[in-house]
Amino acid sequence: MDINKIYNKDCIIGMKELKDNSIDMCFTDPPYKLTSGGCRGGLNITFNQTDQKGKESGEMFKIPKFEEWFPEVYRVLKDGSHFYCMCNDKHLENILKTGRENNFKELNVLVWDKGMHTPLGYYMKNIEFIVLFRKGYAKKINNMGSKALISIMGKRGNKIHPSEKPKELIEYLLLNSTKENEIVLDPFIGSGTTAISSINTNRNYIGFEIDNTYYELANKRIEEHKILI
């Protein structure tokens, strides 16, 4: 499988084409169901990433369970490599549990202060979580002065994807867990921010995006970015 390319396919199928122990780091912001609490008459169900786009376009994609794709991430990662998985508070416990069940070592739970908030009756939510796992032997991050609270402004407007993350956040993690020319995997690459961040930090990338629209938009964004640098 070629590097520096996004593949328009289900990541579970796509990752099976990757060799064992071939990836230096994984970062991803996976799709999951979101719930808004405190609503009368029960929960309002919305969707993050693929399923939300599916509702808008008429294409519906099954949200993969964490236990379905975590084993493939573990298999393709090299020993000593890091796996960053973003999540909200509702899915934090499940991600930690699934990681342990798949032999990952839990290293830390980072908190991203995104400088924005969502109104809520039980404290406004202005943070997201990033679980840091390790496969195999211990490897420290490159900047051991880094703090677990990461304050980087989130994206407000001009977003290609509803859950698009700022490239500065992903670049921060890439610089801490990889060296130049190493390979970064993102199974749910969405608008291609992980690819842009990899290019900016002289890393290689492999990404998967099942949604045709986001796949095309991500590739267009990458090509435009290459012209600018």
* Domain module tally: 1
Rg computed from alpha carbons, rounded to a whole number of angstroms: 17 Å
Beta percentage is 25-35%
**CATH topology descriptor:** Rossmann fold
Strand order, largest beta sheet:
1-10-9-2-5-7-6-8
**CATH level-1 class:** Alpha Beta
What does this molecule look like?
With 229 residues, this protein is α/β, with parallel strands linked by helices. It has one domain (5-228): 3-Layer(aba) Sandwich (Rossmann fold). 32% of the residues lie in helices and 28% in strands. The protein contains 7 helices and 10 strands. It has helices spanning 11-15, 50-57, 66-76, 89-101, 167-177, 193-200, 212-228; strands spanning 5-7, 23-28, 33-36, 44-47, 77-87, 105-118, 125-134, 149-151, 183-186, 204-208. It has an 8-stranded mixed sheet with strand order 1-10-9-2-5-7-6-8, with helices on both faces. Strands 3-4 form a two-stranded antiparallel sheet. A hairpin with a 6-residue loop joins strand 6 and strand 7. It is globular, with a radius of gyration of 17 Å. Mean pLDDT is 89; it is low at 35-58.
Fold blueprint:
Layout: E1 5-7, H1 11-15, E2 23-28, E3 33-36, E4 44-47, H2 50-57, H3 66-76, E5 77-87, H4 89-101, E6 105-118, E7 125-134, E8 149-151, H5 167-177, E9 183-186, H6 193-200, E10 204-208, H7 212-228
Helix pairs in contact: 5-6, 6-7
